[in-house]
Amino acid sequence: MILPILMVLGAGVFRLLAHEFQWWNIAPLAAMALLGGMYFGRRYALWVPLAVLLATDSVLNWQMGYRLIYWPRVFDYAAFLLIGWLGLSVRDQKLGPKFAAAIATPFVFFLISNFAVWLFGLDPGNHQYPKTLAGLLDCYMLGLPFLRGSLLGDWSFMAIFASTMYLVARSASPRWIRVSP
Q1: pTM given for the model
Q2: How confident is the model at residue 125 (pLDDT cuts 50, 70, 90)?
Q3: Which ranges of 18-132 would DSSP assign to H, the alpha helix?
């Protein structure tokens, strides 16, 4: 339990310190949510990653002079909760469903977060997106560069987190303990 908590806290620290990567949308947040669902006990799986997200959002918003919580981010928090639930739902499955959840994670976040941008945000010309199918599709098209960074960040951090958990579990396995004859 201590290693997943340290990894989630490390993800939060990375988010606070690595602003230049976040411009490209490279961050460990979705990986933190998915693997929190897979590795934390059911009691902590959803709220620990969400608490780190809320805390880091509050710090970053304060640094930029914004309100501590920006209410349209509720959609992003919902996306991370859904991703955490996805991790919970595959935690006892074989590798295939876990891999599928990892592949789906950045797309789930992209669809939900860009829907919120279309609903509440502004286009690059500082105008409201038209509340039409064409406006929604335009919002998704303009969000594609951020998807590229999400794919890179989410899958890289998932690989790092999952590999670390696997190696620690494997090294702690009793079959690796040598007993003298």
Answers
A1: 0.83
A2: confident
A3: 19-22, 29-39, 47-63, 74-90, 95-120
